[in-house]
């Protein structure tokens, strides 16, 4: 009986330690839209925040504050990869039958966010 109880305890301890090691992720969607009369792409990022109807959530250059323009969606994907984001899934929509809107779902481990950003996510 003691052996059975000991074995059962080790099994439960193993499940508990496995549950503690699961990684939490933060997700975002990057949406790319081709510019009028150009092959360049502007990118909007959706982190799931409650943004106003007219909020400008285009990806901006930290130095100039101007919206960033990419050569293609792959260029934007490579930029996000350099920032530590990992590609999950992609899909495309036809926007009014004239332009294509590209959506890339990205994820990043919660532990890789800076402390200030972690606190913002935890307060929600």
Please give the structural blueprint.
Elements: H1 2-20, E1 25-34, E2 41-46, E3 69-70, H2 73-82, E4 86-95, E5 99-109, H3 115-123
Antiparallel strand pairs: 1-2, 1-5, 2-3, 4-5
Walk me through the structure.
The protein has 3 helices and 5 strands; from the N terminus they run H-E-E-E-H-E-E-H. The chain has 124 residues and is of the alpha+beta class. The protein has one domain. Strands 3-2-1-5-4 form a 5-stranded antiparallel sheet. A hairpin with a 6-residue loop joins strand 1 and strand 2. It is elongated, with a radius of gyration of 21 Å. It starts with a helix and ends with a helix. 9% of the residues are buried. The model has no long low-confidence stretch (mean pLDDT 76).
Which key features would you list for this structure?
single chain, elongated, five-stranded antiparallel sheet, 124 residues, 31% helix, alpha+beta, 3 helices
Q: Helicity, in percent? A: 25-40%
Structural class: alpha+beta
Q: Helix count? A: 3
Question: How much of the polypeptide forms β-strand, as a percent range?
Answer: 25-35%
Number of strands: 5
Domains, number: 1
User: Separation of termini?
Assistant: 48 Å
* Largest sheet descriptor: 5 strands, antiparallel
Give the SSE order as H and E letters.
Answer: HEEEHEEH
The order of strands across the largest sheet is 3-2-1-5-4
Which regions contain 5 or more consecutive residues with pLDDT less than 50? Answer: none
- Overall pLDDT metric: 76
Computed over alpha carbons, the radius of gyration is: 21 Å
User: What overall form do the CA principal axes indicate?
Assistant: elongated
């Amino acid at each position: 009986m003691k052996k059975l109880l000991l074995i059962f305890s080790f099994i439960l301890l193993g499940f508990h330690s496995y549950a503690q090691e699961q990684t939490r992720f933060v997700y975002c969607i990057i949406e790319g839209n081709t510019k009028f009369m150009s092959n360049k792409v502007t990118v909007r990022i959706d982190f799931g925040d409650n943004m106003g109807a007219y909020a400008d959530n285009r990806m901006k250059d930290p130095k100039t504050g101007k919206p960033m323009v990419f050569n293609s969606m792959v260029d934007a994907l490579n930029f996000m990869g350099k920032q530590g984001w990992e590609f999950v899934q992609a899909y495309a929509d036809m926007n009014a039958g004239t332009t294509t809107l590209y959506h890339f779902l990205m994820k990043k481990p919660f532990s890789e966010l800076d402390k200030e950003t972690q606190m913002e996510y935890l307060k929600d």
